[in-house]
Specification:
It contains 1 helix and 4 strands. It is of the alpha+beta class.
């Protein structure tokens, strides 16, 4: 499932830098272009909670 392009334009990482996110429709994830955190997309809805991060390159 693909996310609406207009939604992707306004979404940002909830971490301190608030960088744009890159969508991977196959993996159903959003990846921060700055810190590398990976957030899930569940049933077409982005889950932008720091507690739900799948991969945290900033904290690794």
């Amino acid at each position: 499932m693909s996310l609406d392009p207009q939604l992707l334009e306004i979404l940002a990482c909830p971490a301190e830098d608030h960088a744009p996110l890159r969508h991977d429709p196959e993996a159903q994830t959003l990846t921060c272009t700055s810190c590398g955190r990976v957030y899930p997309v569940r049933e077409g809805l982005p889950v932008l909670l720091l507690d739900e991060v799948l991969t945290d390159k900033a904290g690794a």
